[in-house]
Specification:
This protein has 190 residues and is of the alpha/beta class. It has one domain (4-188): Peptidase C15, pyroglutamyl peptidase I-like (Aminopeptidase, 3-Layer(aba) Sandwich), CATH 3.40.630. Helix content is 28%, strand content 21%. It contains 5 helices and 8 strands. A 6-stranded mixed β-sheet has the order 2-3-1-4-8-5, sandwiched between helices. The longest helix has 13 residues, at 176-188. The protein is globular and about 40 Å long. The structure holds pyroglutamic acid (PCA). Residues 11, 14, 20, 22, 45, 70-72, 140, 142-144 line the site of pyroglutamic acid.
């Protein structure tokens, strides 16, 4: 049987950080997990452009699933996101110097989309590895939410399923190998 393709994305550093653990963890993953062949993509922290690049790649590789990963610095668990909302409201400028406020991601788009991959099952699979994980009900209003909402919007009514996972900052508990193990468990649960 032909292997299905999973597009998995991480982000470049932003906000003055030297590294972004989301990409570091994605980059460490093997080229195949379970039923999926992995296509990895590094995305710029830019409103609109990150999503456009992810969508373009997902179409090019005929992705059966798209799993985006980003950093949520304040969190103390790996958090699969339940929902993306139609709002751009940036506390800091993105890496292109753009700082939208109170703007929709997609004018006239619905208020929100739910993730279409099994985020609860993914969360439980990460917890089963002994790694702190929890469902999150907000991906924020910055570039990560922009990406999640845009990709869900583009692949609504299609067979391509989509989700987003926020990872915490690197620490003793959340080392890169731990974050990669968490992502592996999440992909195995898809
Ligand atoms: N985290 C930001 C954008 C890029 C990233 O890794 C966010 O949560 O929106």
């Amino acid at each position: 049987m032909e292997q299905k393709t999973l597009l998995i994305t991480g982000f470049m550093p932003f906000g003055g950080d030297a590294v972004n653990p989301s990409w570091e963890a994605v980059n460490k993953l093997p080229d195949a997990i379970g039923a999926y062949r992995l296509e990895k993509l590094l995305l710029p922290v830019e409103f609109g452009r990150a999503a456009a690049l992810a969508i373009e790649k997902a179409k090019a590789v005929h992705a059966a699933a798209v799993l985006c990963v980003g950093l949520a610095a304040g969190r103390n668990a790996v958090t699969p996101e339940v929902v993306g909302i139609n709002l751009r409201d940036a506390r800091i400028a993105d890496n292109a110097g753009v700082q939208p406020q109170d703007e929709p991601v997609v004018p006239d788009g619905p208020a929100a989309y739910f993730s279409t991959l099994p985020v609860r099952k993914m969360t439980e699979a990460i917890q089963a590895c002994g790694i702190p994980a929890a469902l999150s009900y907000t991906a924020g209003t910055y570039v990560c939410n922009d990406l999640l909402y845009s990709v869900l919007h583009r692949f609504r009514d299609s067979e391509t399923r989509v989700a987003f996972i926020h990872v915490p900052s690197l620490s003793e508990t959340f080392s890169l190998p731990v974050l990669s193990r968490a992502l592996t468990a999440a992909v195995e649960a898809i």
